[in-house]
Amino acid sequence: MSFKRTILIVSVIILLIAGTFTAYFYKAFTAPVSTCDDYRIYIRPGDTQESILAAIRESDPEANIKGLIYLLNHRKYGSNIHTGCYTVKSGATPKQVAGMLTGGIQTPVRLTVNSARTVGQMVRNITNQIMIDSAAVAERLSDAHFLDSLGYTPATVFCMIIPNTYEVYWNISADALIKRLIKERDRFWNDSRRNKANSIGLSEFEVMTLASIVEEETAKSDELPVVAGLYMNRLKKKMPLQADPTVIFALGGERPKRVLKEHLEVNSPYNTYKNAGLPPAPIRFTNTRSIDAVLNYTKHNYLYMCAKEDFSGYHNFATTLSQHNANARRYQRALSRAGIY
User: Fold this and answer.
1) Cα separations (Å) of 338 from 310, 330, 331?
2) pLDDT per residue over 243-274, tens digit each?
3) What is the pTM of this model?
4) What is the pLDDT of residues 183-208, one digit of tens each?
5) Residue 281 backbone zone (phi > 0: left; psi -120 to 50: alpha; other: beta)
6) Please, are residues 278 and 206 in contact by the beta-carbon 8 Å criterion?
7) How far apart are CA 290 and CA 245, in angstroms?
8) Cα(291)–Cα(162) distance, integer angstroms
9) Taking Cα atoms as reference points, which of 78, 81, 75 lies closest to residue 45?
10) Tens-place pLDDT, residues 54-67
11) Strand pairing category for 165-168 and 304-307
């Protein structure tokens, strides 16, 4: 074999090796990790580099992770893993994904805080959506000393959270979450709402207390301001509110199917049959519709309400006790016919 022929063969081999290496380099480090739709991975305490890569493979079995593995190993990611929610975007390169993971560049998640009757329900509502210690949240919301430092008590804690949807980091801490919720509560109580509260003669806490009763009385959005107006009329006349939901709250434990005369005798500052004015604090976490219904209550002359006998969830309203008693008799007859005692 001539020297020139040998050089030619060696050159071809070198070119083939270079081409192969270039193709491998492109696929490993330049080609996207994923070409499918964006997806999220959730990294929890105890996760390892291997479990995180497995989560990527599970979301996209065709994922290109060779270059990603090299970069993560090179950056010693296994010893410095950040918890949280991360989005692997379609078309993202290994360098971009590695930078996101090693830098802890999270994707915020939507936390929907629903209204709730108890602190326990609120804790479950929140902790079912994000990576947070439920015991830590429960402890914060019941710790009198901690709440006092924020201007609340275990009773007024219902005023501290405004149900809404917020963007937070999935691995937010209990303390950071509480601070965020208080910030959102203060943002909700803007100048306009504070001025409206002042104009109807109620403090922010009193508005939320009345709103919590209104919310328990009706599930119908269009009825909320009407019910709020009824209770405002009673407050102005210094009449007892006589709100069944406050009696149920005072009873504690399992909610009775019907409020009976014996229940009205419960000795509690929350029993608005025995005590005039508003109860000392809200009886639940209250949604924004109910709060705004109080601030913008309907002006009318109603003083009494009774559930409609058609069980529609709406109420019959009355201006006199005799009208109310007639409405109540119709409802009682409907309950008896339905076998509800």
Assistant:
1) 11, 12, 11
2) 999 999 999 866 777 787 788 888 999 999 99
3) 0.85
4) 999 999 999 999 999 999 999 999 99
5) beta
6) yes
7) 15
8) 10
9) 81
10) 999 999 998 999 99
11) unpaired
Strand-pair partners of 112: 165
CA 331/CA 341 separation, integer angstroms: 12
Domain ranges of the chain: 16-103, 109-188, 193-300
* Burial class of residue 216 (count of CB atoms within 10 Å of its CB; 0-12, 13-18, 19+): buried
CB atoms within 10 A of CB 60: 17
Q: How far apart (Å, rounded) are the C-alpha atoms in residues 180 and 160?
A: 11
Six token digits for residue 228: 């709020």
Please state, in angstroms and as integers, the Cα–Cα distance from residue 20 to each residue in 17, 24, 28, following that order.
5, 6, 12
Q: SS3 letters for 296-328?
A: CCCCCCCCEEEECCCCCCCEEEECCHHHHHHHH
User: 122 exposed, middle or buried (CB, 10 Å; 0-12, 13-18, 19+)?
Assistant: buried
Helices (H), 128-277: 134-142, 144-150, 174-188, 191-199, 204-217, 224-236, 244-251
184/111 Cα distance (integer angstroms)? 13
Query: What gap in Å lies between CA 60 and CA 90, rounded to an integer?
Result: 11
Distance CA 8, CA 256 (A): 95
Q: Is 66 exposed, middle or buried (0-12, 13-18, 19+ CB in 10 A)?
A: middle
Closest CA to 213 of 129, 279, 134: 279
| Pairwise CA distance, residues 42 & 65, whole Å | 18
